[in-house]
């Protein structure tokens, strides 16, 4: 197996926002052996991470370019913008792909009304209510399908 | 150019003065502001259409008439909201000119990469639009302090500057103005009355709105 990350599986991922979602993603990636940097405005948020988390923290506002640079976003294989704020996630995602040339960028966007703009801007989004809604709907309709 | 339809999104006295300046020039102003109390205050004082709500929401931008605007200026305190408002106005409502206030100066070129051509730092907009002063190459930076009662300005002297080669005493600056610091060859010095100013000096100048123009004219020779 190739020791470099191109051929191997280990990736460098920057996760912005260390709430329930961000910490979950960061923890999981870290456990799987990936390098992870987590960015959050509040240092207290990093306590959400498990004791096994072996990545790095950067305390700062991710809408500040210098903070993203400090998180070494220019070296990242992937960026996940998972703060509680759609506007922040959209800005971070765009700065990540356009300025820091990150190949894989994902943004959490709560408000479905913003999806049209995101697709026009080429931002790949995950809308929590859509995802969860689909799970609920399929759980409701799945077993009874055809009846 | 008069009679433009301009939308201003933001809050604070800055928004009010921007709106007033635009109206004075004969433009049609629509204001979008989050704060209900401030909206009431603004609509009492301005002839503008005032819409209360979050301009970063596409539906609200639509209701406020974004599609008919010639210019949208996003001046909220948050860079992320300002980018979003401009992008929404441009991409979803076809607004030709969008301007965003940027707090982080590093975001200015990034915003340009993202298609928002008018990213302005607070200081430029304040000096250019509110105070309605002509931009000048000699004025590097303008920072309003307090409610704008005091300005700190960075001024670069060149060989054409009337102040070059003169002492502060000879210069005769008006009362209530001060050259607080001189950067010469990258080193700061605090000038006294007998200090001679030289071409290439960078001055930090404190002025009041009433004497700003006179001080700048004495230093750079430019009329404003």
Please give a quick description of this structure.
Chain A has helices spanning 20-31, 65-70, 86-99, 115-121, 128-141, and strands at residues 12-16, 35-40, 56-59, 78-81, 104-108, 125-126.
Question: What would your notes on this structure say?
Answer:
The complex is a heterodimer of chains A (147) and B (224). Chain A has helices at 20-31, 65-70, 86-99, 115-121, 128-141; strands at 12-16, 35-40, 56-59, 78-81, 104-108, 125-126. With 147 residues, chain A is of the alpha/beta class. Chain A has five helices and six strands. Chain A has a single domain, classed as 3-Layer(aba) Sandwich (Rossmann fold), CATH 3.40.50. The N and C termini of chain A lie far apart (51 Å). Chain A has a six-stranded parallel beta sheet with strand order 3-2-1-4-5-6, sandwiched between helices. Chain B contains eight helices and eleven strands. Chain B has a six-stranded parallel beta sheet, with helices on both faces. The radius of gyration of chain B is 20 Å and the shape is elongated. Chain B starts with a strand and ends with a helix. The A-B interface holds A 63-66, 85-88, 90-91, 94-95, 98-99, 111, 113-114, 116-117, 120-121 and B 56-59, 78-81, 83-84, 87-88, 91-92, 104, 106-107, 110, 113-114.
Class per helix and strand makeup of chain B:
alpha/beta
CATH T-level topology of the largest domain in chain B = Rossmann fold
Low-pLDDT parts of chain B are 129-135
Work out the radius of gyration of chain A. 17 Å
Which architecture of chain A does the CATH hierarchy give at level 2?
A: 3-Layer(aba) Sandwich
How many separate structural domains of chain A?
1
Backbone shape of chain B: elongated
How many individual β-strands of chain B? 11
Tell me the fraction of residues in β-strands of chain B, as a range: 25-35%
Shape of chain A: globular
What is the β-strand count of chain A? 6
Ends distance of chain B: 20 Å
CATH topology of chain A: Rossmann fold
Question: What is the helix/strand order of chain B?
Answer: EHEHEHEHEHEHEEHEEEH
Task: Write down the CATH class of the largest domain in chain B.
Answer: Alpha Beta
CATH superfamily of the largest domain in chain B: NAD(P)-binding Rossmann-like Domain
The Cα radius of gyration of chain B reads 20 Å
Total helix count of chain B?
8
Compute the number of helices of chain A. 5
């Amino acid at each position: 197996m190739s020791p470099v990350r191109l051929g191997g599986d280990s990736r460098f991922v920057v996760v912005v926002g260390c709430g329930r979602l961000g910490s979950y993603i960061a923890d999981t990636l870290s456990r799987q052996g990936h390098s992870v940097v987590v960015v959050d405005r509040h240092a207290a948020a990093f306590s959400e991470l498990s004791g096994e988390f072996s990545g790095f923290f950067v305390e700062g506002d991710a809408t500040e370019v210098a903070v993203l640079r400090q998180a070494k976003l220019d070296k990242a294989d992937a960026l996940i913008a998972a703060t509680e704020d759609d506007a922040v996630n959209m800005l971070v995602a765009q700065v990540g792909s356009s300025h820091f040339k990150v190949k894989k960028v994902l943004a959490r966007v709560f408000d479905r009304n913003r999806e049209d703009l995101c697709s026009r801007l080429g931002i790949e989004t995950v809308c929590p209510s859509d995802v969860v809604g689909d799970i609920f709907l399929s759980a409701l309709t799945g077993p009874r399908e055809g009846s | 150019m008069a009679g433009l339809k301009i939308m201003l999104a933001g809050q604070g006295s800055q928004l009010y003065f921007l709106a007033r300046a635009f109206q004075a020039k004969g433009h049609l102003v629509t204001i979008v502001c989050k704060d209900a109390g401030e909206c009431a205050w603004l609509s009492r004082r301005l002839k503008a259409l005032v819409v209360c709500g979050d301009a970063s929401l596409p539906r609200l931008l639509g209701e406020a008439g974004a599609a008919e605007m010639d210019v949208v200026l996003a001046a909220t305190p948050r860079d992320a909201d300002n980018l979003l408002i401009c992008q929404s106005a441009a991409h979803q409502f076809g607004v030709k000119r969008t301007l965003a206030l940027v707090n982080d100066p590093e975001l200015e070129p990034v915003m340009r990469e993202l298609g928002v051509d008018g990213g302005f730092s607070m200081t430029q907009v304040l000096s250019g639009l509110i105070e309605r002063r002509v931009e000048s190459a000699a004025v590097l930076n303008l920072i309003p302090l307090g409610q704008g009662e005091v300005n700190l300005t960075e001024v670069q002297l060149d060989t054409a500057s009337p102040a070059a080669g003169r002492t502060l005493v000879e210069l005769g600056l008006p009362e209530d103005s001060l050259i607080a610091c001189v950067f010469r060859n990258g080193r700061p010095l605090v000038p006294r009355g007998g200090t001679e100013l030289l071409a290439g000096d960078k001055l930090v100048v404190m002025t009041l709105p009433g004497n700003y123009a006179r001080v700048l004219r004495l230093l750079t020779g430019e009329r404003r």
